[in-house]
Input
Amino acid sequence: MSCIFCKIVKKEIPSDVVYEDEEILGFKDVNPEAPVHLLFVPKKHIEWTDKLSEKDLFFLAKLLSIAKKVAIEKNIFKACKFIFNVGNTGDILHIHLHLLGGWKEKIPRHNI
Ligand SMILES: [Zn+2]
Output
C-alpha cells in the first residue's frame, strides 16, 4: 500500500505529531493553509464509501472529538474549521480531518 498517511502512522515518513493514542494520530500539515493546520487520521486505513461501518463511524466521531480537544488546548476553538474532503477531491483517500485556525484578522470563508 502506498498510502502516505499509513506511512506517517507507521513512522516511515516523519511528521510533527500533536496527538497520538492507540487509534488516532494528529500531526501538522506540511503545506499549511492557516496559521494552525493540523490533520487527524485513524491509524487504520479507512476510505470514504457509502458503506462505512458502525466502527468506522466511531472513528469519525473520535476524530472530531480529539480535534475539538486540541483546538481548545491551542486556544483556536473560538474560530476554527473542521474539514473532511470526501471522494474525488484530488485529496488523499485515507480518511482525515483538517483542523484549521489561528487567524489573527479576517477568517477566510472558503480556503480549502
Ligand atoms: Zn492509509
About this structure: The mean pLDDT is 91. The helical segments are 4-9, 54-73. The beta strands are 17-20, 24-28, 36-42, 80-84, 97-101. The two ends are 26 Å apart (CA to CA).
